[in-house]
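User: I'm new to structure prediction. If I give you an amino acid sequence, what do you actually give back? Let's try with this one:
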Amino acid sequence: MSTSTRTLRIAMNGVTGRMGYRQHLMRSILPIRDSGGLLLADGSRVQLEPILVGRNEAKLQELCSLHGIAEYSTDASAVIHDPSTDIYFDAQVTSRRAEALAAAMKAGKHIYTEKPTAETLTQAVELARIGENAGVTTGVVHDKLYLPGLVKLRRLVDEGFFGRILSLRGEFGYWVFEGDGQPAQRPSWNYRAEDGGGIVVDMFCHWNYVLENILGKVESVTAKAVTHVPVRWDEDGNEYPATADDAAYGIFEMENGVVAQINSAWTVRVHRDELVEFQVDGTHGSAVAGLRNCVAQHRSHTPKPVWNPDLPVTEPFRDQWLDVPANADLDNGFKLQWEEFLRDVIAERPHRYGLLSAARGVQLAELGLRSSAEGRRLAVPEITL
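Assistant: Good question. You get back a string of structure tokens that encode the predicted 3D arrangement of the chain. For your 385 residues, that looks like this:
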């Protein structure tokens, strides 16, 4: 067994933002680094050396000092073109992402990125072409698939628990404060369409990979995007018009006849166990999965309710479902996918969730917005490079 150690230098752009910092730096890269690096099957280790990249030098200095990181830069181009940089990671706002990803791949860097990868389908497909031509490993964050609730749900699908799957219902969202009385818990650009904001752009790329990996290919979409809260207040307390959609109601028809309905909203108050839940119903059983938990009810344990509005409900419906066990210790979902991506980089093989998968997410968002604007159902064409 080998005991050697090599180092991968990872330029991390956008880690001064909430997601880039908390999930990618704090809960993924630093734990791998601090545990001695990524352990490979042959007993060797790959150590990680993050380089923080961004526009706020003071914040970058602060993060480096706080976490024992040796290097930072406000010049993304210089870091991308540095021969010692192995991987470029992007968690910037969407409007700046495509250009940086294209530059990194053309410079021969492996790339790992948040979504959406681009503002338009044309840009997203072009990124996939560049990645294929560059011969680098490309990965796109599909974090929800690695979270315990959806891991359990996927296992039920694989084991045939549902029989013939009929439908999926998804509820996502919470109340994002407007920013006047209480500070908003999301950045103000999320609510400005001109800055790349909107819940369709943000969430439909997630729903595409969730649906693809649980049910199959999305064949059509019917959506209604709405701006329920027209005025918000930014980080400096200034009032601004909310020009982006803050809620979306979607129906997705799948290649195998399954119908999926997913509501997404930053204007809803939570009355469910988790901020997102998916219910899958089939001929032999049903399950409800959140990010962490999953409960199921088999056909043989399904009660026989009778509708009677004249009598109070006495059935303890929620108590009639059984917890689906994890049967394994599941680490942070972002960290698990980082580890898989890094192993693919080291092995010089494609990552299973690459730029073409991301392009399909951008496509679904574009079609969702178009469906809403035109008031009609739209087919989802096949993307080819």
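You can read the tokens as a compact description of the fold. Here is one thing that stands out. The chain is about 30% helix and 25% strand.
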